[in-house]
Amino acid sequence: MGESPRKAPATQADDRIGTHPPRTRLWRDGRLEAEGFPVAEISEHLAEPDTVVWLDLCGPRDDELRVVSDELGLDAFAIEDAVSRHERAKLDRYPGHLFLNAYDARLDSDSGRLETTEVSAFITERAVVTVRQEPTFDVDELIRRWDADGRFARYGVAFLLHGLLDMLVDRHFDAVQDMDGRLDDLEGLLFDEHTTDRAMQRYSFELRKSLVLLRRVVLPMREIVNTLMRRDLEIVPEAMTPFYQDVYDHVLRATEWTESLRDLVTTIQETRIALQGNRLNEVMKQVTSWAAIIAVPTAVTGFYGMNVPYPGFGEGWGVVTALAVLVITGAGLYVIFKRRDWL
């Protein structure tokens, strides 16, 4: 990679933006030349030829982003979207730059809840500014990806943007894969007699809610990546097109997988309802069968309990006859119901 990057002195307190100190990097002619320099020096570095700058901000306020806006000439509406929460995943065009909003995703395997982190990016001709409201997004992993593919750093912004998108899409794919595994577990719970219906309903509800959120995160990425590959934007050079096409293929796979999971969740819900109906029918058959068996001794004892003379009235053989009718009829009904699988 050539010379090792020189590290600028520690940033001053007045250079601090957001809940964490900003992180900066500078590439020149595809080589990492500096990192950790103050935000106020960005415009000076961009004034030099063949330089590309990356700036990362964590939890900045609107007024703090104005500093970056002055350095790079960012649009006020894009600044507002960057600090707002729960913006939809999108790619907007502004004079002189693009604004990207996307989400990192991770599925909690214990609760089935999907955890998302909003990530925004300002994309200019020779600078990328990432903005995140929470520190849970793994910026170190993003840097490792850039360093691992350093030979492509000469493509500047397209290289940085590819690393960001590739990481987000990979995380989406992992979340979809984890969701598929959790749904397999849910299928197993359907036929587990020891699982309470309430516990399965709660777990199923969390997975359905997470799947809805996951679709909202994954589906817009197809349009985002496809738009970036348009020639009129002049963001992706021809040499980087295959790499963006690979990201796009992963987006399509994640999208199709997500759609199939939605159908699977619906099938699981319908199966659960059908099984509940079947169990209810089994219970009703058993209750009805036992009620029929119990009705026989009730009828016999009622007959022999009448206060009028009947055959065997006051005789010992009458009691024996009554007991024989009780036992034989009850046993006969039990055998019949058992053979019909009603008991």
When the domains are counted, the total is: 2
- Relevant CATH superfamily of the largest domain: CorA soluble domain-like
- Output the strand order for the largest sheet: 1-3-2-4-8-7-6-5
Unreliably modeled segments: 1-14
Sheet having the most strands: 8 strands, mixed
Mean pLDDT: 81
What separation lies between the terminal Cα atoms? Answer: 78 Å
β-strand percent reads: 15-25%
Helix/strand class:
alpha+beta
Count of helical stretches: 8
What general outline do the C-alpha atoms trace? rod-shaped
Q: What percentage of residues falls in helices of 4 or more residues?
A: 55-70%
Q: How many beta strands in the DSSP annotation? A: 8
- The CATH topology name of the largest domain reads Beta Polymerase, domain 2
CATH 2nd-level architecture of the largest domain: 2-Layer Sandwich
Rg over alpha carbons: 35 Å
- In CATH's first tier, which class of the largest domain applies? Alpha Beta
What oligomeric state is this? single chain
How do the SSEs run, as a string of H and E? EEEHEHHEEEEHHHHH
